[in-house]
Amino acid sequence: GEAPASRMSTQSTYPLEPEASQLQPETPKAPGRQRRHTLPANEFRCLTPEDAASVFEIEREAFISVLGICPLYLEEIKHFLTLCPELSMGWFQEGRLVAFIIGSLWDQERLTQESMTLHRPGGHTAHLRALAVHHTFRGQGKGSILMWGLLHHLGRQPAVRRAVLMCEDALVPFYQTFGFRLVGPCAITLGSLTFKELQRSMWDHASRRRNSGS
Ligand SMILES: CC(=O)SCCNC(=O)CCNC(=O)[C@H](O)C(C)(C)COP(=O)(O)OP(=O)(O)OC[C@H]1O[C@@H](n2cnc3c(N)ncnc32)[C@H](O)[C@@H]1OP(=O)(O)O
């Protein structure tokens, strides 16, 4: 039978861990063979503009139904997935999107209201704009696995020196588990909503280990 639901309910069909992620940008399939034929096929890959409708469906439930707004509307999703798909990641199960992260580049120390709409191709900061997991799949570790997967993928892109995001207060501890540091209140507000800004250096993590010994 199934193991009881617990913090370990991550369904570890593949041991994707912070330092030992096996996610490869060119090999989006989860590594290893499925051990049980009943498990759905998993696929991690960068998103394309064709995925925008699926992304927006998740956002509609995750953000709009709760807050009345969402980080990225359909045209904005298409916009960023056209400009910088390599800064995004989707998790598909049997071809269906179950979780996503969409990013773009930013070129200033802190986020500003302008960062809401702009991708700065020369920037060295990955601005992680939106992370969401389909509601029926939450609390299973999927959001965490996807975030580690994207961070690993970004760590292989020399232009990306750090990552930045904004979130509501309640989610600060969640992002701190990925090595993000709280830098303070975010300049961006949406209506009456305020956010905290968090940053994470990419070089303190994957690259340092890779380059150690030089
Ligand atoms: C940059 C941004 O996009 S910020 C906005 C983030 N997205 C959203 O809020 C959309 C709605 N929520 C979701 O899609 C998901 O709940 C996510 C993305 C926040 C987390 O994905 P999940 O797969 O559920 O997370 P995962 O199972 O890996 O980890 C669960 C942890 O997330 C954190 N968490 C999730 N939701 C909340 C919340 N509402 N308040 C506080 N902590 C939360 C907790 O630390 C939780 O750990 P716990 O179960 O021990 O309490």
From TrEMBL:
Annotated GO molecular function terms are: aralkylamine N-acetyltransferase activity; arylamine N-acetyltransferase activity
Q: What is its EC number?
A: 2.3.1.87
Locations listed in the record? Cytoplasm
Give me the reactions it catalyses: a 2-arylethylamine + acetyl-CoA = an N-acetyl-2-arylethylamine + CoA + H(+)
Spell out the Pfam families in the cross-references: Acetyltransf_1
Biological role stated in the UniProt entry: Controls the night/day rhythm of melatonin production in the pineal gland. Catalyzes the N-acetylation of serotonin into N-acetylserotonin, the penultimate step in the synthesis of melatonin.
> Do you know which PANTHER family this protein is assigned to?
SEROTONIN N-ACETYLTRANSFERASE
Q: What is this protein called?
A: Serotonin N-acetyltransferase
What's the source species for this entry? Panthera tigris altaica (Siberian tiger)
Q: Which gene encodes it?
A: AANAT
